[in-house]
Description:
The complex is a heterodimer. Chain A is mainly α. Helix content of chain A is about 70%, strand content about 5%. Chain A has helices at about 1-10, 20-40, 50-60, 60-65, 80-110, 115-145, 180-200, 215-220, 220-230, 230-240, 245-270, 280-320, 330-335; strands at about 205, 210-215, 275.
Amino acid sequence: MDLIQRYLNAVKPLLPKAQQDDILAELSEDIQSQIEDREAELGRELDEDEMAAIIKKRGLPIKVASAYLPQQYLIGPAWYPAYRFILRLVMLWVQIPVTLFIVAPTLYFTSPHPNAALLDLARQLPTVAISTFGIITIIFVCLERFQFGATGRSFEDWDPRSLPPLMPVTSQIQPQLRSVAISELVSGIVFTVGWVYFVRFHPSVNFDVLQFTLAPVWRNNFWPILFLFGSGIPAGCIGLFRSSERLHSCFRLAIHAGTLILTAIVFKAGTWIEITSPKLSAAKVVEIVTGYNLGLRIAFLVITIIVLVDIVQEVRRIISVKTPRPWAANGLAAL
Amino acid sequence: MNPERFENLRLELRRGCLVLAVLAQLRTERYGYVLRKALVDQGMDIDENTLYPLLRRLESQGLLVSHWREQDKRNKRFYRLSADGEAILKQLLDEWHTINSSLNRVIAESDAVVSHGV
């Protein structure tokens, strides 16, 4: 009997508070009935091992208690896709590039002990990643807790007629996600405004001991680069209003081609940042300039790779027009 | 054959049937232990960790009513079907018969196709 009581004590704290006593009374009664039946079968009292076997068959206290708990999740199906998207976006496409291309070079070239600074950064990375993961998770848990629907509506509240229309088979390019068009539009606006602001009005930026100035190659190519940045705005609008997927694709390919040409022109200059310092020695300044320009050289190569990958994807998207999926309405009609 | 996959599908198949069996058994008042024994005797094996939470769920849905009563010098919780439970059970049994006969027809037809093909 001591064993039963110990088992019940272990189950109790895991049960919903309001039902604890009721559930335990029933559980206790059921175990005792089972023991009585077994004793009647054997014609004697059960020993401790036999008693333990009956209790063991019930399962671990956590298993027994969990059957009485409501099904719970931190982030439900309404929010989970958005949560996964934001988590990947922030951790893969923001945190890693910012660390590699901005924070690490800055630390390396401005710290008096660059190796130690980089080592310190590497040590902090897991903490930063876990914090980011935690913050994003907490935000989504709050959204779930306070019952904000992912779209402000329930899963039943939708109309199939609001789905995007089918394109004719002849021009059926798989539509880009709206988020891609929105990011094109927003980045088009931000880069255009930022470009004019920095190159025209603030070509030099003063930090504590360093003055950064854009190299002449940027000023010499002001208009082509402005045009390239600005072209993201109409491209985003075309994608957003889905006026023509083919036009959107062509626009994107033209922008990519322009990016490659301009990257090549700017890359040839060899120096993209000029740095002066009234406090540091000339040798130290040269070292810092070399370091920053090396970082930018790597950034140009990364940009080129990304643009080339994007071009391949865009071309594949256009090519896939000629093979409509068998499950698509037009494809079925053709079968 | 993957035994785990079979077990998952078997449990899925049994889940709805267990509700039906429990409701049907509780047309007569019983307490948990006796109910489980009755189900096992009828070939409907059910784990205690499944049965008791199920009884509570059905009670919270208003399909069962329960009360504590002393029997054989021990307090036991007795369950029986409520009026709502009776009505729902009738509807569920009708649904079960429909599903059963449909399934029989589907299986008979597919058996015929297979044997004809062979």
